Amino acid sequence: MKSLFQYLKEVFLGFYSLWTGLKLTLYYFTHPRKEIITEQYPENRTTTINIPERFAGEVILPHDENNKHKCTACTLCEMACPNGSIKIISVQEESEDGKKKRVLDKWIYNLGMCTFCGQCIDACPQDAIIMKNSFELSVYNRNDLVKTLNKPGSKLKEKE
Amino acid sequence: MIGFSDITKWIHDSLSSALSPGWVLASEFVLAGIAVILIVVVLVVVMIYMERKVAGFMQLRLGPHRVGPWGTMQVFADVFKLLLKESFAPNSVDKFLFNLAPILVLAVSFMALAPISWAPGLQLWDMNIGILYITAVSSIGVIGILMAGWSSNNKYSLLGAMRSGAQIVSYELSAGLSIVAVIAMCGSLSVHDIIMSQADGWWIFKGHLPILFAFIVYVIAGTAEVNRAPFDLAEAESELTAGYHTEYSGMQFGMFYLTEYINMVVIAMIGSTVFLGGWMPFHIYGFDAFNGVMDYIPSFVWFFGKIFMIIFFMMWFRWTFPRLRIDQLLKLEWKYLLPLSIVNVVIVAFITVMKWHF
Fold first, then answer.
1. pLDDT for B238-294, tens place per residue?
2. Chain B residues whose beta carbon lies within 8 Å of the beta carbon of residue A18
3. What are the backbone dihedrals phi and psi of residue A126, each rounded to the nearest 5 degrees, phi first?
4. How many CB atoms lie within 10 A of CB A78?
5. Which of A25, A51, B308, B339 is 20 to 30 Å apart from B34, CA to CA?
6. Which of A11, A24, A25 sits opposite B336 (nearest CB)?
């Protein structure tokens, strides 16, 4: 008797779990306007397109309003990059009290060789570089893909 | 109001005035065959479009929407592509069986349409064993599938065909038993008599809970019989590439594709005839004014509405449930559906003997 009860319970629980799934797909079916996430890309690129914030696109070096970035030219990102698409050029700079310091000169990023793996972002100890969610990156000339990310005259941001 | 029987009678009379009786019969066979094929092909086109839209919406996509208004021309574009492609047969296949299989499968699924009653007075062949004939014929289709799998000389095709055989042998039983439940209450195997017995209410409402249970079992078993997801082990695309039709291309593949949808139509037609009253409008015993209003809705609207309701159920299942493993499939049939159906038939027989049904 107990095994029969167990058998019927299994049948009802099975139907209940199937109904849970059916309910969800029926909700999706009856609410197409609200739920459909397809982007009609070439038509909506200037209007309703929604690229998620964390989409991993090109690498950028953010500057604040005083034209200051956070890169210390430690070259950890250059070493982490599996394709060699990052080249950090640094210069020795002497401050007023005679201390020598290595400062970033050029942060060269070759977009053509980048696979968007994000290992440079993980390697950066200062969180100086991030990946922007832009994805329309094609250009007509291959040389345009090699970019210098730090703006001219930019400085390292002092620690607070 | 002109009924379908008037139209068929007019065609018969005008043919009789011009031809001898033998030729009248022959030309009526041809006309009826063409009419059924046309209706079914239109139904299949609507169903393929519906399937892609339902699949899209359930998976948070849009479905086809570029070819023609709302993508309605997509099906025609796909059929045109299939027609242009070569029907290619690999070197080591058994050529005769390989080319015969798609034709056989398609012919069998058309045969099952013979006793269907489409509307009052519109039925190709009202035989006294109509439902038995449909259940018998619709299980011949598996021979075509086995033929395709065997002749392809390909292990995936053979595996898919064998699975399909095991599956249809199993699920025929519970599909048959769930129809037997209604046959027992109604007392006739003729499609016309079954529909007429539902003039005061459909069996799904008149037959209490046992018939409702039989309907659920029928929809599950019917989904399994047409090899659709979640029971699509015969063509499980992630493990067997495409199962029994891996080696087919062009319109031969198209025939298998067409057969899948025609089988769906047949399953939906039997389901709507047996459980939901076929073309019979929704009637409640005693509510004459309400029944009169319902009679104003044409019978073909009722019939196709019911068919598409069952087809929507099958699509809903397909795009919700994951595929069963072969042991789970057989366990579901032999340990759950079949014992419960047998108990259900016993309960139905008891209700029928005591005359508790309406």
1. 777 777 888 888 888 888 888 888 888 888 888 888 888 878 777 777 777 777 777
2. 321
3. -100, -5
4. 17
5. B308
6. A11
Alpha-carbon gap: A21 to the closest alpha carbon of chain B (Å): 6
Instruction: Tell me the CB-side half-sphere exposure of residue A90, using CA atoms within 13 A.
Output: 17
Two structure tokens written together for A123 = 């390697």
Instruction: Tell me whether residues B320 and A32 touch, CB distance under 8 A.
Output: no
CA dist B246 and B93 (Å) reads 12
Q: How far, in Å, CA of A31 to CA of A34, rounded?
A: 6
- What SS3 state is found at B213? helix
pLDDT in tens, B80-96: 888 888 888 888 888 88
* For A22, nearest residue in chain B (alpha carbons): B320
Q: Is there a contact between B216 and B343 (Cβ–Cβ < 8 Å)?
A: no
Confidence of residue B128 (pLDDT cuts 50, 70, 90): confident
**Integer angstrom CA distances of residue B279 from A145, B78, B261:** 68, 32, 21
The answer to whether the Cβ–Cβ distance between B336 and A21 falls below 8 Å is no
This model of the complex carries an ipTM of 0.75
Q: What are phi and psi of B120, to 5 degrees?
A: -55, 125
Q: Where are the domains of chain A?
A: 2-36, 59-156
Fold adopted by A59-156: Alpha-Beta Plaits (3.30.70)
Residues written for chain B = 358
